[in-house]
Amino acid sequence: MELKLKREELLRRQNLIGGEWTDAVNGAHYSVANPATGGIIAEVANSTKADARAATDAAAKAADAWRERLPRERAEILKRWHALIVANTDDLAAIMSMEQGKPLAEAKGEVAYGASYVAWFADEATRIYGDLIPQQQRGKQMRAIREPMGIVAAITPWNFPLAMIARKIAPALAAGCTVVGKPAEDTPLTALALAALAQEAGVPPGVLNMLSASRDQGIEAVGDWLADDRVRKITFTGSTAVGKYLARESAGTLKKLSLELGGNAPFIVFDDADLDAAVVGLMAAKFRNGGQTCVCPNRIYVQAGVFDKFAELLAARVGALKVAPATDPQAQIGPMINAKAIDKIDRHVNDAVSKGAKVLTGGKRLTEMGPNYYAPTVLAHATNEMLVTCEETFGPVAPLYRFESEEEAIRLSNDTPFGLAAYFYTQDMRRAERVSRALQAGVVGLNEGAVASEAAPFGGVKESGYGREGSKYGLEDYLSIKYICQGGLD
């Protein structure tokens, strides 16, 4: 059963280029499927580099007029967009649940979260300050001003199809940039609906352009943006491998990049932690979106003195999660995005069990429910030799590792090329300060599992990327600094 929309016109199947909804230049389409059923939701435009070039042309044509708008004028448009997103929460959540699979209540939460970035950057648009540099020579005045980077290419993943695109588009528009966007091939419908609402809010033609494309055609489309000198910035959320590709291929035109890439987050439970609070925090951090988030804890380190008790508490909570499609109002875990994701999860669990892990709950496919369901799983006695340690599972699997000392926990947590998020629970405030500083991550949750906020800077270190999204810092990545030296004033 598919969810019904109040406004069927929000289910868009074409590209938005220069204010017009249009098919791909070559007329090609591809299918968007519901991961809960395998059924086809819609046939959407399958764009190529010709469509990408048309979108860039439209963005270039609109760029000067948009950057010259007063900041408060851009802010007013963003505020209208925010109001429309909120007003259409039910339809946006329904579209998201159908194409991505997350439970409807969680999808509504994502709509609110994504909308919060639009509201935040609407306000930030009016706070783009410059500096008057203290005089160094008589007769000269020096100042620094911030200007929009130019055309921004925004490329987003399938796991948060509304929030990820909103938190890239909103600061770009606030800064005075124009945007060419490409959502993930599995989940284009949410982004297209969001673009339709932006158009309704008064975003001028060409300021925001949105393309859908299958994997192969999408690479071709993005490749055109990489080579086009008019595109001055790329903002990407996705895998580290693709992030490295974008960095390499954009070097020829020296674009500015913001890369929010893969993670392998540790979650540390010290023996002085409030175990009930730690379980609640882990449930929020690990099982949101079925474990399909880049900040999900992938390695859960529990100090030896509380290992057994924590494992018991966690297994009870995880075993009680309701797995169901989005149409079930009681659903807490939906289907995974596709068969490839299920295969990876199953491979990780089987590998762990073969190397000595014990399944406390779950550990199996739920084929009776549909093709893409997996039981929420807790594994005890995980070790460094297992795939779950070094590969991002991206699913509802929580492996527990035993540790003895604070030094060991920090060493194990940092023993990864990634550094996006890290979490730990302790009631010792001296330890809290030590561990917060020692963890090599861009985001740290201290006695907290839900760390995301539009007011906070989000991003990683090491191979988890660079640049920040959200907060006052998130606007900086869409601005360049111009130094102006005025002489002849004496």
TrEMBL record:
Active site: E260
Residue ranges annotated for the Aldehyde dehydrogenase domain, each copy included: 21-484
UniProt keyword Ubl conjugation, yes or no: no
UniProt similarity note: Belongs to the aldehyde dehydrogenase family.
UniProt lineage: Bacteria, Pseudomonadati, Pseudomonadota, Betaproteobacteria, Burkholderiales
InterPro entries on file: Ald_DH/histidinol_DH (IPR016161), Ald_DH_C (IPR016163), Ald_DH_CS_CYS (IPR016160), Ald_DH_CS_GLU (IPR029510), Ald_DH_N (IPR016162), Aldehyde_DH_dom (IPR015590), Aldehyde_DH_Superfamily (IPR050740)
GO biological process assignments: gamma-aminobutyric acid catabolic process
Species, as recorded: Caballeronia choica
Protein name: Succinate-semialdehyde dehydrogenase (NAD(P)(+))
Superkingdom field: Bacteria
Gene3D superfamilies documented for this protein: Aldehyde Dehydrogenase, Chain A, domain 1, Aldehyde Dehydrogenase, Chain A, domain 2
GO terms assigned for molecular function: succinate-semialdehyde dehydrogenase (NAD+) activity
Keyword Glycoprotein: no
Swiss-Prot/TrEMBL keywords: Oxidoreductase
